[in-house]
Amino acid sequence: MPLGHWRLPEGVDVRGTGNGLGRTRRRMRAVARELRLPPLSTVEELCAAVSAHLDRPIRIAPRRMRVGEPSGFVERLPAEDVVHVEQETSGLHRAHIICHELAHLLCGHLSAPASPDQDAGKVELPTIDPEMVRLVLGRSHYDDAAEEEAEVLGAELMRILVLAPGAGTTSQLAPALEHRKGQHV
Amino acid sequence: MSELPYNVAYLGIGSAAWLVAALKLRAWRRDPSFGLLVVALAIASPSTAFLLASPLLYRAIGHLTGVGNLATLFVYLGIVGFSAAAVVLALVWTPPEERADDRIWAPLDDRLRQRVRHRTALFAALVPVLVALFLAGGPYRPETPLTFDTTFAPRTATALFLALYQGLFAYALIDIGRVCLGHAARLPHGWLRRGIRLIALGALTACGYVVCKLAAIALAHAGVDGAEWLSTALGPAFATLGAIGITCGFAGPAGAAWAARRRDFRALRPLWDLVYRADRRLALEGPPSPAWRERVALRDLEWRTTRRGLEIRDGQLTLRPFVDPAAVHAAQRLAGRAALAPSHRDALVVATAMRSAVTALAAGAVPRPREEQPALPGLDTAPAEERAHLVLVAAYLRSPLLERALEPLG
Predict the structure, then answer these.
(1) CA B91 – CA B114 distance, rounded (Å)
(2) Confidence (pLDDT) at B171
(3) B180/B112 Cα distance (integer angstroms)
(4) Domain segments of chain B: what residues?
(5) Which residues contact B101 (CB under 8 A, 6 or more apart)?
(6) Contacts of B2 (CB under 8 A, 6+ apart)
(7) For chain A, how many structural domains are there in total?
(8) From A167, which residue of chain B is nearest by alpha-carbon distance?
(9) Beta bridge partners of A62
(10) Domain range for residue A94?
(11) C-beta of residue B228 within 8 angstroms of C-beta of residue B151
């Protein structure tokens, strides 16, 4: 069930402004907390957890993006959601891009897919070619509130990840003594 | 005996330690973890004890409650609180090989949770025993903010109260000291190791307090005079030094991590400015802060540094189609001739590539298709090394080698 009930009302633009972003950050922190996820080691585990939460398969597909394509985008297919991510960038960056796209899914920014049994020709989409059942949301800029929300929630999802706990002893002590679970923070 | 040095020492340390405890609690709220909560309580409890042990507040409690020397009970319960927290911490920090699970940073497993519960229950059960012993001894007159132990040790109930409290404290100090020393041997050089060793050193020093106090109590109970200085001067000196060591040990690593993050945050600015020039829409928060605000940046550094790093990486992707292969080759040649270490060579190449790309973009160059874009180093950087890599790239933006690499391009 997408966590969409707290979306901004239409026409409200809080993009980039100090207070607006602060409010978004507080909201998204609460959203991430609602997921009640334990610390996870990899972004693949996070993806599986989000998939279980939304009750919908999500697949990560690294690829070499072409010029003009965003660094990541999510594609809604009838049977699953696919997160496309630029493969030639650092692990930390790639993890964040994936978290951004997972945030779009959690926020319910993508509308419901057409039912697989429905005949594509019978889909009532007045402005979209009925052949095109793929819906896409990419990550490049924060021109609208949805992108900003996804970026902020993506950042909160990243905080659930412990990508670099540090070797043995360090990982045990870092949370209490350095106030960070991962050495990548 | 002048009470001023005691007031200054106890109030000073109590306040400073409470500040550390408050910062730890705030960090725990941001990023909950059991170990951090226990550390916060391990500092808050004795900090309160130190404050109440100052003759000023000690007497105030006596006046407020009408019960003389009641502050002693609170002070010693505060130290018992530290003892309980330290014992739990020693459990949670038990070295890896004694724990089967790989994910030692993960939340408590059931067995550990049970052991923590047992230890906490034991201490909780002893608190009413201590209170009962204190009340049974009836040590209300005279009021003795500094000489309670030796004054009332002749009373058996009070002697038992004091011995039990000191015993718990000694057990906790040895436990946490032992675990910390075990860790210190395994940690790499740095503030985490320094902090752990300080905690161990502080615990050892505080044992000196226990030894002095037990000796003084035993002698006073046996009716021997002349040893009060053990309880009023040497003991408190050991306790004060031990408290400073332990508090610094708990606070040091966090302070160092914060300072390192702040240093990196500022170091990344030139590189971020470069990508911002290429594409302003990469920034989530705008407009960019002026130089003076950068200098006094103190708040919210985790978010700001993370954002900066991510936007730089986004910028790197945006600029990739405009990178000049000739500049990249020139940088690689120069790095080879200068015999740069691999990480420095990668940083020089990336810095050169990004500068050449910004110039090309500004000049209206056509983006190269994916197949013709030169492969840049630094993309296989592990998450733990990411910030260090980007900081090095930012440093190389100012390098004369970079200017030489860009020269042929005019």
Answers:
(1) 11
(2) 96
(3) 18
(4) 4-263, 268-409
(5) B109
(6) none
(7) 1
(8) B187
(9) A85
(10) 18-113+129-177
(11) no
Mean pLDDT of the B17-23 span: 96
Specify if A165 maps to a domain: yes
Residues B224-278: tens digit of each pLDDT? 888 889 999 999 999 999 999 999 999 999 999 999 999 999 999 999 999 999 9
Q: What percent of chain B has pLDDT over 90?
A: 74
Q: What is the ipTM of this complex?
A: 0.86
Query: pLDDT (tens digit, 9 = 90+) per residue, B316-352?
Result: 999 999 999 999 999 999 999 999 999 999 999 999 9
Q: In what order do the strands lie in the sheet with A58-63?
A: A58-63, A81-86, A72-76, A135-139
Half-sphere exposure of B140 (CA within 13 A, CB side): 10
The distance of B108 to chain A (nearest Cα, Å) reads 11
Residues 6+ apart with CB under 8 A from B177: B199, B200, B203, B204, B207
Characterize B383-404 residue by residue with b for buried, 16 or more Cβ atoms within 10 angstroms of its Cβ, and e for exposed.
Answer: bbbbbebbbbbbbbbebebbee
For residue A185, is it within any domain?
A: no
Cβ pair B195:A177 closer than 8 A: yes
| Rounded Cα–Cα distance for residues B150 and B154 (Å) | 8
Closest Cβ opposite residue A164 in set B368, B378, B383: B383
**Per-residue pLDDT, B96:** 57
Tell me the fold of B4-263: Rhopdopsin 7-helix transmembrane proteins (1.20.1070)
- In this prediction, residues B179-194 reach a mean pLDDT of 92
A-chain residues near B381 (CB < 8 A): 90-92
Tokens 């990243």, located at residue: A158
Q: For residue B311, give both structure tokens.
A: 């936007």
The strand pairing partners of A135, in sequence order, are A76
Q: Which amino acid is at B112?
A: L
Interface touch B370/A168, C-beta < 8 Å = no
Cβ-Cβ contacts under 8 Å for B180 (sequence gap 6 or more)? B93, B196, B197, B199, B200, B203, B249
**Does residue A182 lie within any of the structural domains?**
no
* Residue A124, in any domain of the structure: no
